């Protein structure tokens, strides 16, 4: 269905031409870790450091992050494409998401993926509905740098790509 004369299929095709970095959002749901791959996140402000992320509004990830009130965003390195696939698979089982991964933890207990370029722990202060997604916004309360020598994992034209020198 077109909105204001914009064809959704054409919009999807053209918006896939945005080169975006891949990241994984982690939070806790009861005793379980919940992780999901995202490519819609935003540095909103430096003063105070504030970020936002967009999650499908009806997803268990959006519900879990909002319910917990906190999450960690790990920016993936180019050699972490397998993690993007692992946590980007719809309907992945909640139990055992971190099996085989020795993740660090934020002060709130959210997973920090090893080898990520950087991580940002957020406290969610605001949620805004936007079309089919929920924008979750909050201050950065903790952060750290990982493997800065690696390039970022990116998606372009609907596919995972590497930056070329």
Helix content: 10-25%
Mean pLDDT: 88
Shape: globular
Distance between the termini: 41 Å
Instruction: Describe the sheet with the most strands.
Output: 8 strands, antiparallel
Number of helices: 3
List how many beta strands DSSP finds: 13
Flag low-confidence runs.
Answer: none
- Helix and strand string, N-terminal first? HEEEEEHEHEEEEEEE
**Rg, Å, rounded:** 16 Å
Structural class: mainly beta
Strand content: 35-45%
What order do the helices and strands come in, and which of them pair?
Elements: H1 8-15, E1 20-21, E2 23-29, E3 32-38, E4 41-46, E5 49-56, H2 60-68, E6 70-75, H3 81-87, E7 104-105, E8 111-112, E9 118-123, E10 126-130, E11 133-145, E12 154-156, E13 159-161
Antiparallel strand pairs: 1-12, 2-3, 2-6, 4-5, 5-11, 6-9, 7-8, 9-11, 10-11, 12-13
Question: What would the keywords be for this entry?
Answer:
3-stranded antiparallel sheet; 8-stranded antiparallel sheet; 165 residues; mainly beta; globular
């Amino acid at each position: 269905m077109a909105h204001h004369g914009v064809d959704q299929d054409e919009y999807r095709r053209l918006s896939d031409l945005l080169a975006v970095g891949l990241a994984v959002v982690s939070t806790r749901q009861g005793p379980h870790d919940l992780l999901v791959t995202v490519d819609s996140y935003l540095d909103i402000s430096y003063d105070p450091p504030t970020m936002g992320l967009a999650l499908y509004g009806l997803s268990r990830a959006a519900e879990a992050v909002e319910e917990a009130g906190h999450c960690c965003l790990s920016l993936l390195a180019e050699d972490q494409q397998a993690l993007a696939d692992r946590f980007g698979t719809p309907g992945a089982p909640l139990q055992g998401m971190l099996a085989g991964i020795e993740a660090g933890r934020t002060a709130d207990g959210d997973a920090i993926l090893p080898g990520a370029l950087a991580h940002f722990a957020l406290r969610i202060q605001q949620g805004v509905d936007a079309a089919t997604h929920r924008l979750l916004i909050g201050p950065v309360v903790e952060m750290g740098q990982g493997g800065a020598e690696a390039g970022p994992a990116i998606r372009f034209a609907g596919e995972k790509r590497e930056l070329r020198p």
